[in-house]
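Researcher: We're teaching a course module on how sequence relates to structure. For the next exercise, students receive a sequence and then see the predicted structure as tokens, so they can try to spot secondary structure elements on their own. Here is the exercise chain.
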Amino acid sequence: MFNFDLITSIERYILNHASCKEYDLIRHLMEIRALPSNALKTPLSLFRSHFLVFNALYRLKMKWLLEGHSFLMISPLEIKQINPFEQNKIDEREVHEYDALSHFYLDLEHLNNTETHDINSLLDQFWREYFTPSLKQKALNTLELAEPVDIKTIKQQYRRLAMRHHPDRGGDADKLIAITEAVQCLEQYY
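Model: And here is the predicted structure for the students to work with:
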């Protein structure tokens, strides 16, 4: 069963890690058994774990603001504590602006009313948007290819461009990354 009050464990962790990722935080909570060992196994358990962590983070953010302790920046990629003496690092809008995400995560009805089919629908929508024709065309353009094309041609072109743009050969690392991402995108289509 999920622990519905993770704020104490999360506060302790953040006080010892001024910056972390959501995944690191969830793994820690699993290690100390504040979340079950299967918290990341299914889409529904992943959603519930994520929701409970973000619920606790937004409550902690409010607590620290009221105490004048520090400011908590929250995103899945980085959770960061900013001490009061570093206030100049905070955009004023971040403190005072209405945060729609906090409203979502502080409403436990979203946790209680979300079922597996809801999560699957959200994931399906994400993947449909992720694999849009414009992404496919952008990936083809990055590889300097046009339809009709097959996976063999894509991989041959990737090798040619990777050799040309590899930093060890005087190329541009960002271009090589874009080429690699383009191939990964196109592998989903061919």
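Model: If you want an answer key for the exercise: The CA atoms of residues 5 and 56 lie 7 Å apart. The mean pLDDT is 86.
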